[in-house]
Amino acid sequence: MATPDFIHTIRADAGHQLLWLPGVTAIVFDDEGRVLLGRRSDNGKWSVIGGMPDPGEQPAACAVREVFEETAVHCVPERVVLVEALEPVTYPNGDICQFMDITLRCRAVGGEARVNDDESLDVGWFALDQLPDLHEFGLFRIKQAMAEEQPTWFDRT
Questions:
Q1: pTM of the complete model
Q2: Which helix (H) or strand (E) holds 40?
Q3: What is the pLDDT of residues 123-132, one digit of tens each?
């Protein structure tokens, strides 16, 4: 994920200290029930699509924007899948961030999946029984998004 300009501005004053930030993940399904994934350029691994909302941007609008920016797929958010505070992350440059992730289930409504920016090496649709190697973060979100009758998940601890 490229660092937004507003974060560079904050970091100029805050240095490397912990920043509490919003994050949005989009679990996008097509009409065949396949899920949209991107292979990240920063680590070469397959992942679900996501990013950080711009200041004032609604989570659903962020999901739509991020999916299009990264994959050229147009989507419509259908429901909130989960809300979860993630563990803090320390980046190689020393910056520390902790994200509040809002995951949305989305439906593809147009566009052809392709690499659409420099954040991805590859983009593709995957049948649920043929997923590439994914981190538990993505697998859990896909599982929650598939559960039609499931209410929004949140950690009760």
A1: 0.92
A2: strand 35-40
A3: 999 999 999 9
